Amino acid sequence: MTLEEFRLEVKKLKNSGKYPSRKSYLLPALWIAEKNFPQINSEMIKIIAEELEIPLVEVEEVARFYAMFHTERKGNFVIRVCTNLSCMLNGGEEILKEFCRLLGISPGETTPDGMFTVESYECMGLCDGAPAVTVNEERFSKVKVEDVPKILKKFGWKG
Ligand code: FES
Fold this sequence. Notes:
By secondary structure, the protein is of the alpha+beta class. It folds into 2 domains: about 5-65; about 75-155, 3-Layer(aba) Sandwich (Glutaredoxin), CATH 3.40.30. The protein is built from 7 helices and 4 strands. It has helices spanning about 5-15, 25-35, 40-50, 55-65, 85-90, 90-105, 150-155; strands at about 75-80, 115-120, 135, 140. A 4-stranded mixed sheet has the order 2-1-3-4, covered by helices on one side. β3 (about 135) and β4 form a beta hairpin. It starts with a helix and ends in a 5-residue tail after the last helix. It binds FE2/S2 (inorganic) cluster (FES). FE2/S2 (inorganic) cluster (FES) binds near residues 82 and 87.
């Protein structure tokens, strides 16, 4: 199954009228991903969030909570760069590119040593500090491209 086919399946499920609320489609949608892919990754989680209009973090929490779902293994440090409107207008995309360039990976990927995963993320509620980045639980606001190596070094990047 391709990601586009997956999106169509989730749409079909949502339009089936089987369940009382949007949120009740979440587990069945995750099952579609589980059955058709070796692992549930951030792209699938994003598709479910978009199609069911459920916040991305909620879909992610549910997917990771249940042991029956095999979610993608992530690095020790998960770097999330917000690319929603406020952050995008303040350089979020450039920040994301710089993390990826320095680590030699694309958004959604993990470095071969398992240290870092970089993800483009939805609004984190830190818009007044745009562009915003989180590394695991730690938050960084008003990040500039030149801050990126400093942030990485803080988490053990040898560069
Ligand atoms: S738009 Fe980036 S934190 Fe809200």
